[in-house]
Design brief:
By secondary structure, the protein is an alpha+beta fold. It is 14% helix and 29% strand. It is built from two helices and ten strands. Strands 5-4-10-6-8 form a five-stranded mixed sheet, covered by helices on one side. A three-stranded mixed sheet has the order 1-2-3, with helices on one face. The protein starts with 9 loop residues before the first strand and ends with a strand. Bound molecules: FE2/S2 (inorganic) cluster. FE2/S2 (inorganic) cluster binds next to loops.
Length: 147
């Protein structure tokens, strides 16, 4: 599958699953590669990306607590700045959520937002506006999750 790549990016393809790695380029090149793969009919879930960067310091603007409702679990809890990302918050409460890489790459922790808003700390938000990556997301309003 020929893909136009404007740098020394390594791209491998096995069947319909693609892995790309670019150790020295900005994310705009990764985005361009993703767009080309999607245009060639590769499913988004079959495109994997590895990002190598130091985590940025998370900026949490508010000290305000938020109510988080895990609707499927039937639990409501108060999230505070010290609670951290929703995945670790839920785990400390004994609420099982799916997870994988825990760095915002695999999207296996994606959960649908039923109400409210979140901020993703270190990773890009998913394309679907009603979805959050719980390993990266913190609430910025009262929140109801489909979890
Ligand atoms: S666990 Fe992989 S993106 Fe959250």
């Amino acid at each position: 599958m020929p893909i136009a790549i404007p740098c020394a990016t390594r791209l491998t393809s096995v069947s319909r699953r693609c892995r790309r790695a670019c150790p020295d380029c900005a994310s705009s090149i990764s985005t361009a590669i993703t767009e080309q793969l999607l245009a060639k009919g590769v499913a988004r879930f079959a495109i994997f990306q590895e990002a190598f960067r130091a985590p940025a310091a998370a900026v949490i603007a508010s000290d305000r607590p938020f109510n988080v409702h895990f609707q499927r679990s039937g639990q409501r809890h108060v999230w505070t700045r010290e609670s951290g990302p929703l995945l670790s918050f839920a785990e400390r409460l004994g609420i099982p959520l799916p997870s994988g890489c825990r760095v915002g790459q695999c999207e296996s922790c994606a959960v649908r937002i039923l109400q409210g808003e979140v901020k993703h700390l270190h990773a890009a938000a998913p394309d679907e506006p009603d979805t959050c990556l719980t390993c990266q997301a913190i609430p910025i309003s009262d929140l109801t999750l489909d979890a």
